[in-house]
């Protein structure tokens, strides 16, 4: 009986001690938290002739496409049936007024290894449409021109919109 009581007391102390060790002490060391200032600005501007305060009533129009329809699409050297792939659209650079300034095309490499990003003017891309309605992207520049072009440096662009899901929290990103 005595052994059981002693064993129970020892287990209780060990479990309780580790639970106390895991308890976080808020604001340890007495250092006061500093609040960082936050500034907010518009990401895009409203198209001319539209109400900038419109919410939820904008409808698709003929000729509009989603950026996601381009990202990840292969780009071909011509509109011929046997055209070779020259790269893949990896991203689009947008201006503050929502216009596409450049397409980032991944070229070279094999299965993404050794690939480099090249920024091309949007007028370098064309949409080819076959008589059955199938579409694909065609590049005016040659594969050699793309491979010899300088690599695009993403680090020189401002960071985009933070994704709360990446940080595991729904609050704004910590600075």
Automatic annotation (TrEMBL):
Residues 1-21 form the signal peptide. Residues 64-146 form the PRC-barrel domain. Coiled coil: none annotated. Keywords: Signal. InterPro entries: PRC-brl_dom (IPR027275), PRC_barrel-like_sf (IPR011033). Residues 150-175 are annotated as: Disordered. Transmembrane segments: none annotated. This is PRC-barrel domain-containing protein.
